[in-house]
Amino acid sequence: MDTIMDIAQKYNLYVIEDAAQGVMSTYKGQALGSIGDYGCYSFHETKNYSMGEGGALLIKNEDMIEPAEIIREKGTNRSKFFRGQIDKYTWVNYGSSYLPSELNAAYLYAELECAEEINKDRLASWEKYYYGLSDLQERGYIELPVIPDGCQHNAHMFYIKAGCLAERTKLIKYLKDHEISTVFHYIPLHSSPAGIKFGRFSGKDIFTTKESERLVRLPMYFLMSNGIVCDIMTWNSMQYSYVITGEAEDNPSIMFRYYKNIDNIPDKYIYIDFGRDKILSCDNPTFQFNK
Ligand SMILES: Cc1ncc(COP(=O)(O)O)c(C=O)c1O
Question: Hey, what domains does the chain have and what are their CATH numbers?
Fold first, then answer.
């Protein structure tokens, strides 16, 4: 954002910050959505804070609030009328009907009142995924997300990168067979029908397609950490092995892993206290957990 804001300042441009998924995230301590001249949040049902469909526009320059209200209210100054600033309202500019319904707004309001709690819970699930799956990254089976310096995320999503498209396809199928719904995210814009029609790829596509074919989003939702957190099977192409990571039912700080024939070790359960990186019990005494 620093670079974007510098360029905008240099060329006297406005920045509209698409922070659709960024509520409660920060960049260098500043809330996403509040850095540009305008910030946009989405409260679509897929977002951390939702009203089904809807969003918010953050406006830095107070002079721009009234024109935005007019556009939102079908081109009328009805908002001023409701505030008692004028005695009747009329059409003053172009606009459309961008108002949320009160019922949807009430639903969102309740979520925003618990925003800290929701954020904390999602971050806890995110961390559990990250530390629970980190040894698989160390073994070179998967890649985990990277959070750039100065950024605080809001656990909107947790993804892993499988080795290649074929591995990802099998992993998604395997998880689906075990009633765990995962998705990839997304088809790169330049290879979508509309992208082909209206856009072009700038430079050579070295990473975009390749990396997008490896990405799998794992389940992530509020209160996930209270149930089985991970139940994630990771597939190893060489040995057709799986790892299931979950949470011990009676003690949420202890996670279990079920290694199915991984590294030629027979099926077994291993109970690990991730807080202390300690194996609490293990069916197979020869297994060395490399944490
Ligand atoms: C980065 C980004 N911008 C915009 C949108 C669109 O948001 P909405 O559906 O609320 O218009 C999304 C939704 O997924 C998004 O992730």
Answer: 2-113 (3.40.640.10), 116-282 (3.90.1150.10)
